[in-house]
Amino acid sequence: MLLKLDLFIKEVLIFYVCTHVASQCCMENQVLHTLLQALKKQKYHLVGRHSAVKRCKWLYEAIVHDRACYKQKFYGIKSHQCIQMTPSLFYCTQQCLFCWRAQSGDLKIRWNELRLPHWDSPEEIVEGSLRAQAKILSGYKGNPNTNWKKLTEALVPRHVAISLTGEPTLYEPLSELLRAFHNKRFTTFLVSNGTLPEKLEALSEEPTQLYISVCAPTEQVFKQVCRPHSTEAWTKLNETLNLLPSFRCPTVIRMTLVKGLNMTAVEEYAQLIKKADPTYVEAKAYMHVGFSNLRLSYSNMPAHKDIHTFGELLAEKTGYKIIDESAESRVVLLSKLEKPIRFVFS
Ligand code: SF4
Ligand code: SF4
């Protein structure tokens, strides 16, 4: 793994050297070192050349305090059996202000975020993710507060949240990756920003549940908050929203709401939701964590009551109802269903 990580470092370095004067070399090494140290500090476990697993705080909460994340509450997936991962750690078509990932330009280094230079195979990513999760879990054996029943179950993960950071549709063999997880009896929740509709349309294997992020009501706010690399991104996102009804799996419009930035124009949001006709809308507060600390402030985090009020306005305009919520995660769930579909594990 270290060898592959070195390859990534070399690639960033080459890109950097090609775009900067050679005299800055020492500084580059220093900055790359800083980036990797920052990722390690944030507990990223790098898998191969472009993937990563990170312990979700709810894995800890489930094993140590017997508490579950809101997705367990809503959909029945088990927090302690969930792997939070990404196949595109450093790569995305957007640079959202609220994103917790390290973006090109943060920490003063730049790389091409739109191109995964190599593709590790789906099998390598699945096996590497399982190894990384096992390593994370090994730390709980020495914790006197560990719930051993939960830990024993956690050692057999059953769910993968392909949502950690980055845009997963940039990883070309995404269908094969989903299939590889499904073949191991995992459920998969896939989160995409929807700017590559052709990739989503071409999926030969659907995830168990598909999330599309809609974090702006208009193109103007989209450009300001989501900062897409392409001028066509808003059109592409709208193509994806038109495509959403064609999926067989449950679909979710995921909104990350940032106080003072994108909690406006409910009517416009409602039009986007009506177009996509998703199974659910999850409206969730921005959390002031990770590298987003470099771009936004603590005061940009909405309180749960702000999210609930926003959810009520959305419900009024869309005909969806608030069917569940989690105050501690600052999220409301809207749907036309009476209650969410729960995934049953055999
Ligand atoms: S579903 Fe999401 S919030 Fe829940 S444990 Fe997995 S990564 Fe964490
Ligand atoms: S689309 Fe997701 S991964 Fe990409 S910048 Fe936005 S929040 Fe981050």
Walk me through what this model shows.
The chain is α/β, with parallel strands linked by helices and 346 residues long. It has a single domain (49-335), classed as TIM Barrel (Alpha-Beta Barrel), CATH 3.20.20.70. Helices cover 38% and strands 16% of the residues. A ten-stranded mixed β-sheet has the order 1-2-3-5-6-7-8-9-11-10. Helix 1 crosses helix 2 (25-41), helix 10 crosses helix 11 and helix 11 crosses helix 12. It is globular. The two termini are 34 Å apart.
Question: What brief labels describe this structure?
Answer:
TIM Barrel; alpha/beta; 346 residues; 38% helix; 12 helices; single chain; binds iron/sulfur cluster
Bound molecules: iron/sulfur cluster
The structure class reads alpha/beta
Helix fraction by DSSP (H/I, runs of at least 4):
25-40%
- End-to-end Cα distance: 34 Å
**What's the level 1 CATH class?**
Alpha Beta
**Poorly predicted spans:** 13-24
**N-to-C SSE series?**
HHEEHHEEHHEHEHEHHEHEHEE
* Radius of gyration, whole Å: 20 Å
The CATH homologous superfamily is called: Aldolase class I
CATH architecture assignment:
Alpha-Beta Barrel
- Describe the main β-sheet briefly: 10 strands, mixed
Q: Name the shape in a single word.
A: globular
- How big a fraction of the residues is strand? 15-25%
Per DSSP E runs of 2 or more residues, the count of β-strands stands at 11
CATH topology grouping: TIM Barrel
Please, how many helices? 12
In round numbers, the mean pLDDT is 91
Spatial ordering of strands, largest sheet: 1-2-3-5-6-7-8-9-11-10
> What number of domains?
1
